[in-house]
Design goal:
The strands form two sheets. The protein has a five-stranded mixed β-sheet with strand order 3-4-2-1-9. It is globular, with a radius of gyration of 19 Å. The protein has two domains: 123 residues, NADH Oxidase (3-Layer(aba) Sandwich); 176 residues, NADH Oxidase (3-Layer(aba) Sandwich). β1 and β2 form a beta hairpin. By secondary structure, the protein is α+β, with helices and mostly antiparallel strands. It comes from Thermobispora bispora (strain ATCC 19993 / DSM 43833 / CBS 139.67 / JCM 10125 / KCTC 9307 / NBRC 14880 / R51). One of its GO terms (molecular function) is oxidoreductase activity. InterPro entries: Nitroreductase-like, Nitroreductase/BluB. This is Nitroreductase.
Length: 323
């Protein structure tokens, strides 16, 4: 059993997290994995309420679940099991043996292949049937994935993302916090955003430009492509929840990862644009005018990329406590 649980944790650490902060820790006891948040890795300026930290941990929780399912066990999950231990986010027990289904095996196989994209996409559209699958995948986890297709709404979201990016770029606190997680070329760190995971030069997205975070900070860092081939917008989507509690944030993270893994199985990547959602006034505006009152948790672009970004993860020994 210990081998199965360790394999599940090894899968969990490949979840996406804001700035690749990897804000989680795990403890194995008996047939159970305990997932906790690591407050030292929370973005205190960007994420004062811990919303993005819990979304990241929710994505790790989904990986735990799908790994156990693929390895032949039915996962039994308890969210926020102890009110007196707010950092303990979930327990996942390896339940009764159950033969893995085809979907579990498919998603499990994508865990280490999935990558966050930080540039434009090709002009190849995502088939409507796949978009419907991704919408259903989010719904199965209790969240809602909203494809944004109307030109006025796309212009609004692109403008708000750009405005938030400009404001954050002039705020020294934001800049210092992001600098902590922007890895210079050749860095041996196993967290943060690698310098070769985004292009050196960037073109404006077509037809809508969604501002990217400036991890290079004018240092000329990047993957070295002076003329990026892909600058397409891709499909813009919002992931929302009906509530905005800690449980909802964990639900959003699980829905996010199910969507990302299912998309990855078809060669579709995701680019994240959380700047506007990190500013309470802009997030409230998007909730009211774009999401119909639902709470926006993530803003993403989905599409096909020609290049494959790099990624790094901390070794399991750093995040796992075993008896």
């Amino acid at each position: 059993m210990m081998q199965v649980l360790r394999a599940a944790v090894e899968a969990a650490v490949w979840a996406p997290s804001v700035h690749n902060t990897q804000p989680w820790s795990f403890c194995v006891s008996g047939a159970e994995v305990r997932l906790s948040a690591d407050p030292e890795r929370r973005l205190r300026v960007t994420d004062p309420d811990g919303r993005q930290m819990l979304i990241s941990c929710g994505a790790a929780l989904f990986n735990l679940r799908i790994a156990l399912r693929a390895l032949g066990h039915r996962p039994v999950v308890r969210l926020l099991p102890d009110p007196d231990s707010p950092l303990l986010l979930a327990t996942v027990r390896a339940g009764e043996p159950a033969p893995p289904d085809e979907l579990a095996g498919l998603l499990y196989g994508e865990i280490e292949r999935r990558r966050t994209h930080r540039s434009g996409f090709t002009a190849l559209p995502i088939a409507d049937e796949l978009v419907d699958e991704l919408v259903a995948a989010a719904g199965n986890e209790g969240a809602r994935l909203i494809p944004v297709r109307a030109d006025p709404m796309l212009r609004v979201l692109a403008a708000l993302t750009g405005a938030a990016q400009e404001i954050q770029a002039t705020d020294r606190r934001y800049a210092l916090e992001m600098a902590r997680w922007a890895r210079p070329p050749g860095s041996a760190r196993r967290d943060g955003v690698p310098a070769d995971s985004y292009p050196t030069a960037r073109r404006r997205g077509v037809p809508y430009h969604f501002a990217e975070r400036d991890y290079g900070r004018g240092e000329g860092w990047g993957g070295g492509d002076e003329e990026p081939i892909c600058a397409g917008t891709g499909l813009v989507v919002l992931l929302t929840t009906e509530g905005d509690t800690r449980e909802d944030w964990l639900i959003a993270g699980q829905a996010l990862q199910r969507v990302l893994l299912q998309a990855s199985a078809y060669g579709v990547s995701a680019a994240f644009h959380g700047q506007a959602l990190e500013m309470p006034d802009l997030r409230a505006f998007i909730r009211r005018h774009v999401c119909g009152g639902a709470h926006p948790q993530l803003l993403m672009r989905l599409g096909f990329a020609l290049d494959e970004a790099s990624s790094v993860r901390r070794p399991v020994a750093e995040v796992l406590r075993e008896p």
